[in-house]
Design a protein that fits this description.
The chain is mainly α and about 300 residues long. Helix content is about 75%, strand content about 0%. The protein contains 15 helices and no strands.
Length: about 300
Amino acid sequence: MSTSDLLTPAPAAESSVPPSNSAPNGWRRVAWAAPPLLIVLVIAVYPLVRVLTESVGGTGQSSWHAVLGSEIFRRALVTTAQIAVCSTIGCLVLGTFLAVVLAFVPFPGSVVVARLIDTVLALPSFLITLAFTFLYGSAGAVNAAIFELTGNRPLDFLATPAGVIAAEITFFTPFVVRPLLASFTVMSTDQLNVAASLGASPWRVLRTVIMPEAVPSLMAGGSLVLLLTLNEFGIVLFTGAKDVVTLPMLVYTRGIVSFDLPGAAVIATVQVLLSLILYGAYRLVFARITTNRRGGR
């Protein structure tokens, strides 16, 4: 090799890095994100904005001050909160019992019962109310059977808050059962076996091992039920409970019956704000519990 060959610079190596195509990828992402974003804007955001703007334009008895200061609104707010809280507590108690029995107390037909619970999730809420009417109404099957024996029809609770709560517990309990069953399915059996080998009673195993692991699922199901019962309209309407006035019923009455759209928009805005506040509180509490559980591990 000559000296000139050594001094001659070698040809530059061809770069193996492909040319940047970030711009086409960016436009492709925008094209994929635009349709769902547009759908959300049209279906969810636009109606909320319209309700808010309609509520601001109210005057007289339809203004914010008049609506929020009215006695019927305060009673509807208290009634809505009472029914939602009582229904949620009932769903948590009944749902926990059903989930524990289905997961840890096997019996013939447990799979069928679980599938029936899943079926309730696919039914509209007013069907449960109609079923309650056929069973426990003044001319229902239960009252008819009691009348044949005693000559009286003692059951008359469907048109009361208790009837609404009973119907909501029946319909919304599967929303608690499903997350709990999913949590119990992935739960490690080692802790259960160790606790049983140490002589712990079934109640102690349930209290100290099973239920602490199910807290996130209980919170998820309970918060969902609370939001759904807070905004439930069909069950209250179909029970015929004229004296049970909730916020959704008040929105219906003022908007559809009285044609007071600004007043109905004020109440609907309050309903939306309550739902958002409850959802935000749930997210904060759930994040804190999750962080504490990870730190404990």
